[in-house]
Amino acid sequence: MSKLIGSDLPGYYRIHAPIYDLTRAWFLFGRERILAQLARQWPTCAQYAPRILEIGCGTGRNLRRLQHHFPSARLVGIDLAEAMLEQAEDALGARVQQRATPGLPGLQLVHGALGEADLGGSFDIVLASYMLTMTGAAQSRCVAAARELVVPGGLLAAVDFHATPIPLYARWMARNHVHFDPGLRQRLGADFNPLCSERHSAYGGLWQYFLSIDQRPR
Ligand SMILES: C[S@@+](CC[C@H](N)C(=O)[O-])C[C@H]1O[C@@H](n2cnc3c(N)ncnc32)[C@H](O)[C@@H]1O
What is the pLDDT of residues 152-208, one digit of tens each? Predict the structure, then answer.
C-alpha cells in the first residue's frame, strides 16, 4: 500500500468496524440528506442505469441507501480497511474483490486505496461521504482521483467535516484520523458546476459540516 497513507487506518477500523454504524449515527450528519439531494439532482430523463462509485464506502451503509434511491444502478464501493468491508459484505451480501469489472450488474466491493486500485473506468456519480478528511497525506491525490473518476456531465457528491472553532476538539478528532479542512469543499468542486452547496452546524456550533454536489463540465 502507498507510503502516502501514513496513518494506520486499517488498524483503527479493526477496532471500530463492529461498532461503527451504531456510534457514527450520532455525528456523521448529513448522509441521508446528500443521498436524497443526489436522487433529486440526477436527471429523471436519464434512461440508462447509472454507474455509481462510493469512495471510502466503509460498512456499506450509503451503498444500501443508494440501492434504494437508484434501484437500477450499478454500484461500486472501494475501501482500504478490510474490517469495514467485512461488515459491508455481511450487510450487502456482496463479495470483496481486488478490482471492479466494468459491465457487471449489481454491486461490487473493491479492497484498496483510492487512486491505486483498478475501478474499471469512470462513473456517472462519485460519492465521498466522510472519507476525504480522513485521507491525511493522500488527500490531494484522492481529491484528484475522485474528480477524474466522474464522467463529463456526471456528478461528484460529498458530505464531510468543514471546520470547528474549538482547537481542543480539532486535536481530539485528529487523534481519530479526522482533519478539519475548510478549503476541501472548494478544491473538490473547482471548475465543476455547483448544483448543491450547503453548510450546517452540529451540536450548537461544535463543528460545521458541508454537503456538495458538483457537475463535471461536458
Ligand atoms: C468515516 S468512514 C466513512 C464510511 C462511509 N462512507 C460512511 O459515510 O459511513 C471513512 C472510510 O474511508 C476509508 N478510507 C480512508 N482513506 C481511504 C483511501 N485512501 N482509499 C480508500 N478508502 C479510504 C476508511 O477505511 C473508512 O472506511
Answer: 999 999 999 999 999 999 999 999 999 999 999 999 999 999 999 999 999 999 999
The structural domains of the chain, with segments of one domain joined by +, span: 9-215
Report residue 124 as a C-alpha cell.
456517472
CB contact at 8 A, 208 and 165: no
* CA-to-CA dists, residue 87 to 40, 58, 93, 206, 208, angstroms: 29, 8, 10, 30, 28
Conformational region of residue 115, where left means phi above 0, alpha means psi within -120 to 50, and beta covers everything else: left
User: Does ligand 1 have an atom closer than 6 angstroms to the CB of 135?
Assistant: yes
* Protein residue whose Cα sits closest to atom 18 of ligand 1: 113
Q: Rounded mean pLDDT of 52-80?
A: 96
Nearest alpha carbon, ligand 1 atom 14: 56
CATH architecture, domain defined by 9-215: 3-Layer(aba) Sandwich (3.40)
> b vs e for 36-54, b when ≥16 Cβ sit within 10 Å of the residue's Cβ?
ebbeeebeeeeeeebbbbb
